[in-house]
Known about the structure:
Layout: H1 21-43, H2 46-53, H3 72-95, H4 102-124, H5 141-147, H6 149-177, H7 197-251, H8 257-276
Helix pairs in contact: 1-3, 1-4, 2-4, 3-6, 4-7, 5-6, 6-7, 7-8
Amino acid sequence: MAEKSECKHWSLTSRVKEPSPLGTTIWVGLRAADAALQYALLRQKLASELVKLLGGQPVVATAINGPLGLTPHGFLLTAVAVGASLKHAIWALFIKEQKMSAPAALAIVGIETLHNTINTFLSAWAITSAAPTNGPPFPSVGETLLSSPILLLGATLSAIGLTTELYAEFQRKWFKDDPKNEGKPYGDGLWSLATHINYGAYTIWRTGYATVAAGPFWGGLIGAFFVYDFTSRAIPELDEYCMRKVREGWSMTIPKISANLRVLQYGDSWAKIKKHTNYRLLPGIY
């Protein structure tokens, strides 16, 4: 449920810090199930069968000699899906502090799975697939990457985005775990490159994943969608949440003066971080 605010927005995330074992279990379990689903869709050719069922022409696999009984292209797609699921599991188990309700976990994981399944479907459709149509007769995964600049670009973006998002989240957690930083926002490390570097990294790996599946046009559309969503909804919402702490701090009563000062310090620190950080989402771009 969206947190009440002065501006109109919606969010599935909570700002309340407390354990949520049920929501976390659902999150981790379903993210693992999603990776298994994407593998099954490719391994069992279920995505290709769906393409034929809808009247399309599936990709004709020239060689199924990649790991796990997949084509090299299918293995790359599965690797990104597994990497994303693993990153999300690590975040939920070792980084997350906010409460995650069961409905929120179901909704967010459902959206993630929908994105991934669309990628898998488009990768199996001859019209949209980024699977190489030429090259060695029995290519390895490495040969497939080197023979296709599009796949190499997508895989590189996926790896950079996933590792950047995860490391940035760990940097912020390490900062907040220090008692002397209680109530302070973090703006160093990767976060000094962009105030919402985690959103930017997510955009990068989502763009890369879509590019591996169906080429640069689909990847560009996905990237543009997340840039729009983050810049028009998520970033303004989070900025408002941080600055609202200042307004709430001034309204506190004298008996709460210590909490009042911490809130005001948070808002002041956040304002300074925004002033000295040139970018909000993607370093050098926005």
